């Protein structure tokens, strides 16, 4: 084994260890589109899910079957019919859905049963349990359209799913539900996955989809200036959803976003939209800092907010040790009282665990992020990244083009997060006059455009 491999593998493995610890014992509901299976991605996705489960995560897998049902319908000379973004399930479509679900269940179980030597599944034991966990009701007639055997989730057997997960099994669910009279209804994978995630209060709802995520500006095409928004606060997701037309196709921005919002509102901590086209997207999202898709997060869980006068004491207590050791420039209580509106804080159980201030220089279209601090008791849990993300959002909302920091000890942390070192002469004139040349702080800039 090469020395180069050793020096790259060991730091990488250490860097993912905090995420392994964080997710152990958590429950993920994964919605797998039928398009992903049709694209030949099932084998690698099964390997990644087995790996995630082996690291202590409880997994519920809900598969879709849109293209498979359409293929069955074409073989029977029958046309697929949709309205209001949902399939109209007549008798032929219901038979086709049942046939497609049976075939896909066979393929999925086979993929999780492989254990050839020298493959990621070698030595793994993944037990899959399926069952009638969903009670359904008919969609009925909407705007004069009879949806026939298309249904909606009425009830989820949450206790039954939890027992299966506690047994150590992976729960496999098809988008079918049954009425108390035994009538079968064709559901959507997205609704089943969302309803299950809410009912069992999953820690994550993850959709593996045709789209790469939600872009910073959903109305503009893909570009370097319009990347994927990797973290979307619930409130911002709600506002975006309100501006979008009702989704008709899975590629519409609102299609998966509406379910992510519903899940977070229902108590699921985080919901994700990931591209199945990227190999390993599940692992990249769960175990790598920046992730790869869009995560919708309910900020109330993190208590990430703008500071108030009641937080002044907590901010002082947090930053004081870092001022004593020279990491931060000393700030008086008067300064913090004066500037408290500029601060963003993270609060856990009534204690301030992180903070940062944003001082804008509108004439230069930039702002300084100062006093970024995370408690030693909360480090390696992502609080610094969440504060940085919030500060960036505040700066963007002001119409600024960049933010900058001055630091003497943590420049590598900022460089890893997109900042670039510049000469102090870059600073806005007003800030340059206050620059301490004796301290020799490094100036780092992150540009938004």
Outline of this structure?
The chain is α/β, with parallel strands linked by helices and 449 residues long.
Report what the structure shows.
It is a single chain. This protein has 449 residues and is an alpha/beta fold. It has 16 helices and 23 strands. Strands 5-10-2-1-13-15-16-14 form an eight-stranded mixed sheet, sandwiched between helices. A seven-stranded mixed sheet has the order 17-18-19-20-21-23-22. It has a two-stranded antiparallel ribbon with strand order 3-4. Helices cover 37% and strands 24% of the residues.
Low-confidence segments, ≥5 residues, pLDDT <50?
Answer: none
Mean pLDDT: 90
Q: How large, in whole angstroms, is the Cα Rg?
A: 25 Å
Strand content: 15-25%
What overall form do the CA principal axes indicate? Answer: elongated
Strand order of the largest sheet: 5-10-2-1-13-15-16-14
Structural class: alpha/beta
Number of helices: 16
Biggest pleated-sheet summary: 8 strands, mixed
Helix content: 25-40%
State the distance separating the first and last CA atoms: 42 Å
Number of strands: 23
Question: Keywords, please?
Answer:
449 residues, alpha/beta, eight-stranded mixed β-sheet, seven-stranded mixed β-sheet, 16 helices, 24% strand
Topology record:
Layout: H1 3-23, E1 27-32, H2 34-38, H3 42-54, E2 58-63, H4 66-75, E3 82-83, E4 86-87, H5 91-111, E5 128-129, E6 134-138, E7 141-142, E8 145-146, E9 151-156, H6 158-166, E10 170-173, E11 176-178, E12 184-186, H7 189-199, E13 204-209, E14 231-233, H8 234-243, H9 253-265, E15 270-275, H10 281-287, E16 294-297, H11 299-302, E17 304-306, H12 312-324, H13 333-339, E18 343-348, E19 351-361, E20 366-374, H14 383-397, E21 402-407, H15 411-415, E22 420-422, H16 429-432, E23 442-447
Parallel strand pairs: 1-2, 1-13, 2-10, 5-10, 13-15, 14-16, 20-21
Antiparallel strand pairs: 3-4, 6-9, 7-8, 11-12, 15-16, 17-18, 18-19, 19-20, 21-23, 22-23
